[in-house]
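ESCALATION

Customer reports they have been waiting on this structure for their group meeting. Please prioritize. Original submission:
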Amino acid sequence: MIVHHDPELDCLTLQMGERFDFSIHRDFHDACLGDGKPARSYVIDLGEVTGMDSSALGMLLLLREHAGADRADIRIVNAAGELRSTLRVAGFDKLFVLH
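Update from on-call: job pushed to the front of the queue and completed.
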């Protein structure tokens, strides 16, 4: 996972690696929730992800709550094929902006 923070826009971008699962829970938590103060916006890039489990969905929900729930500005980008289908079946297309 590569994390980039644009201080001018206060946007945190997480470029996920091949696996988006429980093995990165601590890193995801530290990057998104670690300092306690939410960023103005978030971009979760799933372009390299080949596998995602239910803990990844849970991490996204925790981020959404941390970022302000319905007021959160979180974009999930580059989710293709099966990942996009999983997100839609789980109703995440209603909770997040999917690009």
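Sent to customer with the following note: The radius of gyration is 12 Å.
Escalation resolved.
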